[in-house]
Amino acid sequence: MMLRGLEATARTLVANGKGILAADETIGTITRRFERLKIESNAESRRTYRELLFTAPEASSFISGAILHDETIRQLGSDGTRLPDLLLDRGIIPGIKVDLGVKRLANTEGEMVAEGLDGLADRLNEYRSFGAQFAKWRAVIRIDERLPTRKCIVANAHALARYAAICQEGGFVPIVEPDVLMDGPHTLDRCAEITGQTLHSVFDELSRQDVSLEGMLLKPNMVVAGTACPTQASITEVAAATLRCLQRHVPAAVPGIVFLSGGQSDLKATAHLNSINLMDGPKPWKLSFSFGRALQDRALATWRGNKAHWIDAQRIFIHRARNNAAATLGKYTPSFENEIRQPSDTFVSTDEDD
Ligand code: 13P
Predict the structure, then answer these.
(1) DSSP code of 233?
(2) Residues marked as catalytic
(3) Is there a domain that residue 143 lies in?
(4) pTM of the full predicted structure?
(5) What DSSP element (H or E) covers 288?
(6) What count of other Cβ atoms lies within 10 Å of the Cβ of residue 170?
(7) Residues ≥6 apart with Cβ < 8 Å to 80
(8) Are 51 and 86 in contact (CB under 8 A)?
(9) CATH of the domain at 146
(10) What distance in angstroms lies between residue 1's CA and the mean position of ligand 1's atoms?
(11) pLDDT tens across 100-109, in order?
């Protein structure tokens, strides 16, 4: 019964033409993004900004779920309604980030492992009382000449699988997020190799922990060349490499793959998603988005903490959500970008999330 509920929630999150808003930046990360735009970061400004996103008109036409941070799930909107209830009232499923960030992995040269398993079942019980129905855990894998080590991949895959098992036992759909970072000069092929090894290890560990694949979603990076690689791949090269990697490593029982944007420009993330959905070949899962920066950056740069820009910022956010929703169906074209006046600069934050 529980499993059937998980499967239904997972499928709702990847319903046709919809994707997920990742709005679960830690206080540190959102503060860095606010400060770059000279927005003061405090509990009230963060609350206001999240309310702007959650109440954007028609959001639920394109957004199935939103991932919240622990601070946000406890906050009230301006009318006194809890923020997760504002989402539920609009037909958007609230989710919660439950990893507690990455810490240095012992016996490595600065590799990281996500922590937060201790007490997770109890924390989920509390989040359930706020209406959350799914969760997210992000593991980080860094590429350089000698990295990642096998140790780092296995430690992160194991933690992801234990998190997913605890979530499912508690009635939450786990979003399993192994994020192979774009930073560095590595090639597209090297990203494909490491992403493949990582996904292989993740599904091995998920199987070992008896995680129901039907009741989870995968949130991977796309396969791209590193940001400092002199040879950047074309949109179709990224799409082909990404789909090939997923076909080789992700079982068909997983209902959906919801990509992170990872520091790609918002327009590229949309174009890549569209191209992946247009590729020939088997695609047994829904291929959608769970973007943070690629959905929010322009809206945040429009709002800049100013009440007078609230409606424009909501419009910009919905425009990105609509374009990404179209990309999940392979129906996006770059001309859609001219439908709305955009902020003059193509502001994209490239800082790493945590
Ligand atoms: P980005 O799309 O900005 O990478 O964020 C997604 C996310 O949830 C990171 O954990």
Answers:
(1) P
(2) 177, 219
(3) yes
(4) 0.97
(5) strand 286-291
(6) 18
(7) none
(8) yes
(9) 3.20.20.70
(10) 31
(11) 999 999 999 9
